[in-house]
Design goal:
Blueprint lengths: L1 E5 L3 H12 L3 E5 L2 H10 L1 E4 L4 E4 L3 E2 L10 E4 L6 H4 L12 E4 L6 H9 L4 E14 L2 E14 L7 H12 L3 E4 L3 H22 L3 H6 L1 H20 L7 H12 L7 H8 L6 H13 L5 H15 L13
Length: about 325
């Protein structure tokens, strides 16, 4: 399979590396120091269970890559305005674009430029980052992808892609209801990310303090209500299941938003608490916790380091 990884940072680099190691024709699309390191020495993946290096072609220009069978779209959401218009040279009639971005609005943003036809959407569960240019570190998480058509049940093309991913050593599964899968992750991620960012505290401290734990529950219940108002079949037990997950992770577990805030990088705030607040207003559902998260984090982000310090070039 011919694959282009658009945004070969933590998530894209990890899964793209596994596909390249399995023998697929993978091109890693990155930029800056990260791109140069990949070109010079390959992409190094250091995981909890395995370590390997792949020598895969790398570029910062999709036009140099040409049409592929699969685009793994792993760009940070705050780069969408510049990254999505670069995708058309990668597409032919039957190309699949699998977006693994955070939030629940990625498919709509992609479809506005590409049309809905190519797009599959997925939720990814992994703790991974760029430690230094050319080096991806996977430090936790189940390393799992749950994906499918943006609307509807499993499709033949999703099942075919799942077989390819599994054969490459990726823990992938096709969702019975992709919207439900995305919103279930969204419920926890948006709430946990905002709370870790505002408190500058990891999971261990948040779950141990009754007040912050209750605030997290209230934030997740807001997402649940917004999703249900938009027709997503979410059940209240998803909140208790999220708390079980919270109690299972290492005490040091934190969010990428927290790390980005500390490093002075842009934040994926608009597609997390920002989208919850906006989608809540559309459905006449009050979301006071996420409104507060959004307003406070927007101020915090504005006071961080210059936006040019956006990391080593994951895109």
């Amino acid at each position: 399979m011919r694959v282009a990884v658009m945004g070969a940072g933590g998530v894209g680099g990890y899964f793209g590396g596994l596909l390249a190691r399995a023998g697929h024709d993978v091109t890693l699309i990155a930029r800056g120091a990260h791109l140069e390191a990949i070109r010079a020495q390959g992409l190094r993946v250091e995981g909890v269970e395995e370590r390997f290096t792949v020598k895969a072609p790398a570029s910062d220009d999709p036009r140099q890559v040409g049409p592929v069978d699969l685009v793994l779209y792993c760009v940070k959401t705050y780069h969408n305005a510049t990254a999505i218009p670069l995708l058309p040279p990668l597409l032919r009639k039957d190309t699949v674009v699998l977006t693994l971005q955070n939030g629940v609005s990625s498919a709509q943003e992609l479809a506005a430029v590409l049309g809905p036809g190519p797009i599959l959407t997925g939720a990814v569960y992994i703790e991974v980052t760029i430690r230094e240019p050319g080096v991806i570190v996977q430090s936790g998480g189940p390393r799992r992808i749950v994906f499918g058509e943006p609307v509807g049940g499993p499709s033949p093309r999703a099942r075919r892609l799942c077989d390819v991913l599994v054969q490459a050593g990726i823990r992938a599964e096709v969702a019975e209801d992709t919207r439900r899968a995305l919103w279930t992750k969204f419920m926890f991620l948006a709430s946990f990310a905002a709370l870790t960012g505002l408190s500058r505290a990891p999971a261990g401290k948040l779950r141990a303090d009754p007040e912050t734990r209750e605030l997290l529950v209230r934030a997740m219940e807001e997402v649940l209500a917004v999703g249900q108002a938009h027709g997503v079949p979410l059940e209240h037990k998803a909140v208790s299941e999220a708390l079980v997950f919270l109690d299972s992770v290492p005490a040091s577990f934190t969010s990428s938003l927290h790390r980005d805030l500390d490093a002075g990088r842009p934040l994926e705030l608009e597609v997390l608490s920002g989208d919850i607040w906006r989608l809540g207003r559309e459905a006449s559902v009050a979301t006071p916790v996420h409104e507060l998260f959004y307003r406070c984090l927007k101020i915090a982000a504005a006071g961080s380091a210059p936006r040019s310090q956006a990391g080593p070039g994951s895109f």
